[in-house]
Amino acid sequence: MSTHFRRAPAKKALPHPDLREIPVYLVLRALGEPLRLGIVRSLARADRPMNCSSFGLSVSKSTSTYHFKVLRESGLISQFEEGTSRYSELRETELEQRFPGLLTAILAAEEPAAAE
C-alpha cells in the first residue's frame, strides 16, 4: 500500500532591493500615495504576512499589482508566492535600521478625516 503525502507549496520570494541602496525620497514617494500608505498601515497592524487579495482594495488587479510593486521596489515590503497566492509583509526591522524613526513617525501620524 502506498501512502501519498501532500507537500506544502514552496515559498518563492520575489526580488526586493537591499535597503542600503534605497534613498529616503523613494520611501517617502511610495508612502505619499494614500492607497499605498493604507497597505503599509494594514501590514503594520498584521501579525503575519497578508495575502494580497485580503486587503479589499477598490482598484483593478493590475492597479493593485502596480502599487504592491512600488512598495516592494522602494524597500517597504517583501513579497513571496506560495502556491497561487502572493503574500506581503512590512520590512519594519530593516526600515528602522536604515531610517531610524521614520516608519514609526509616519504610522503614528493621524490619518486625515474623510471629506464629507
Automatic annotation (TrEMBL):
SMART domains: HTH_ARSR. Residues 16-110 form the HTH arsR-type domain. It holds the Pfam family HTH_20. The keyword DNA-binding applies. InterPro entries: ArsR-like_HTH, HTH_ArsR_DNA-bd_dom, HTH_MetalResp_TranReg, WH-like_DNA-bd_sf, WH_DNA-bd_sf. Keywords: DNA-binding, Transcription, Transcription regulation. This is ArsR/SmtB family transcription factor.
